Amino acid sequence: MSKSILDTIGNTPLIASQVLNTNPNVKLLFKMEGHNPGGSVKDRAAYNMINAGLEKGTITKDSKLIEATSGNTGIALALIAGIYGLNIELVMPENSTKERVQTMRAYGAKVTLTPSDVGIEGARDYAEAKVKNEGYIMLNQFSNEDNWKAHYKTTGPEIWNDTEGEITHFVSSMGTTGTIMGTSTYLKEQNENIQIVGVQPTDGSSIPGIRKWPEAYLPKIFDADKVDQVIEISTEEAREMARKLAKEEGIFAGMSSGGATMAALKLAATLDKGTIVSIICDRGDRYLSSDLFD
Question: How many domains does the chain have?
């Protein structure tokens, strides 16, 4: 029996594609991160960053926390900060979906919306100014080593164990890059031949949760040597695949999961054999007020 909601973070199911993967010599497995209590893969990093900060003393019960987020990390931080009795302000572009904003507020966080025309970069600038001028503390998922270490400790080992070491390729969308960095580090230690495939948007495409960062905003935790291949996906490909996942596989997820699935299917089509694990990073219900499923 779980002792608290925090004990339900991780150990998410690994589900085989039944329809979309048409290569009979390749297994395509979906890592279902929407089963985390906060509904996304970001629960892992948020829990590890807050827990490690409290253990190290870099944050305390009196700290004023602030974080810029495109959504999933903010929900996870709001959930976990609330359990620990911490005050947190989450900063998001004003075009974020209503469900995300309401969920963060339900967990007790203060939510500040910044102009949509400056995107997540503008939210990051706002948060950094509050740290510099008003004594706030930023967990900073973009440079916090405890972000990727969450996946080194949990996501990587789960995938290795659940595939009984058969995994040949790991596919993940790249945002803060914590998931792909930590999972890559662990899997490469088990078998250096496992191929790590990152997913980025094509030039001009906008996919929530997947970014091709300008150099000045590139996450400090990112190490290009830990990614063997990058597959670029368009907005329309990600949208179409999110809809197909729901309709054909019964997997209700967002655009970044659609993007990762599209990349995994493109990869599968090129392989003679293999076992691909692709991250389904969240649930589709936090996109219902958008036009994703219209």
Answer: 2
Can you name the residues that pair with 282 across neighbouring β-strands? 40
Structural domain that includes position 56: 42-138
CA–CA gap between residue 285 and residue 69 (Å, rounded): 18
- Residues 64 and 45: their CA atoms lie apart, in Å, by 19
CB 110 within 8 A of CB 102: no
The H helix count followed by the E strand count for the chain is 9, 10
Q: Is residue 240 part of a domain?
A: yes
Binding-site residue set for pyridoxal 5'-phosphate: 72, 175-179, 256
- Same domain as 185, residue 54: no
pTM: 0.94
Within-domain flag for 179: yes
Q: Which residue numbers belong to the known binding site? A: 72, 175-179, 256
pLDDT tens, residue by residue, 171-227 = 999 999 999 999 999 999 999 999 999 999 999 988 888 888 888 788 899 999 999
Same domain membership, residue 61 and residue 21: no
- Distance in angstroms (rounded) separating the CA atoms of residues 93 and 16: 35
Q: Which residues have a catalytic role annotated?
A: 42, 256
For residue 158, the one-letter residue type is E
Give the Cα separation of 284 and 34 in Å (integer). Answer: 9
Flag whether 283 is in a domain: yes
Q: In which band, very low, low, confident or very high, does the pLDDT at 2 lie, cut at 50, 70 and 90?
A: low
Does residue 80 register a pLDDT over 80? yes
The CATH number for 74's domain is: 3.40.50.1100
Output b/e per residue, 101-110; b: 16+ Cβ within 10 A.
bebbeebebe
CB hemisphere CA count around 223 (13 angstroms): 12
